[in-house]
Amino acid sequence: MGRVVAHGLRGEVKVFLEHPDSTFDWVGVEVLFESKEGQAKSKAKVLSFRRIPKGVILRLDAFTDRTAAESVHGLVACVPREALPECDEGEVYLFDLLHLKVEFEGRIIGRVEDFGIYPTANTIVTRLEGEIIEIPVATPYVEEVDLRSGIIRVAYLEDLINRKKKRKK
């Protein structure tokens, strides 16, 4: 969900959300705090939260003072997949795209290795001919996401490939 910093003296933590406009209801959710490498460090249940411009401030059952909150400073706050609301028709969570095969013109060109979150677009990161490219998850690039078969069908890559070739010159 986002990067964590200690906040105030009462054990609250500030979470800078990857999607600050999220309307997720945090109350009662058990948050797992992980390192950037994915190692679990601790858990805590959310007692209350309040929204701030770039995220949320959480009050947790396990933290009663700043020292406790500092134990998760710099970690990433994660919530279980089942705690998230179901996506609307035609929507997916970006993390559901990780490791899916990327298909272009009927052939598999790679797998989703990562994703990027930018103000103008979200992207999937894959390798094409040995080089990393970021493909916007939008029209005209992504034609279909088929979670059941584990494939993302890409319809357009021309400007991404041309941009890559121009950088080489």
Blueprint (SSEs and pairs):
Blueprint: E1 2-7, E2 12-17, E3 30-34, E4 40-52, E5 55-60, H1 66-70, E6 76-78, E7 101-104, E8 107-111, E9 114-117, E10 122-128, E11 131-136, E12 142-146, E13 151-154, H2 158-168
Parallel strand pairs: 7-13
Antiparallel strand pairs: 1-2, 1-6, 2-5, 3-4, 3-6, 4-5, 7-8, 9-10, 10-11, 12-13
Number of helices: 2
Please state the average pLDDT score. 83
Query: Quick one: how many beta strands?
Result: 13
Portion in helices: under 10%
Q: Which structural category do the helix and sheet elements fall into?
A: mainly beta
Give the neighbour order of strands across the main sheet.
1-2-5-4-3-6
Q: Which spans have pLDDT < 50 for at least 5 consecutive residues? A: 164-169
Shape: elongated
* Strand content range: 35-45%
Round the Cα radius of gyration to an integer and report it.
19 Å
How far is the first residue's CA from the last residue's CA? 39 Å
Specify the biggest β-sheet. Answer: 6 strands, antiparallel, barrel
String of helices and strands: EEEEEHEEEEEEEEH
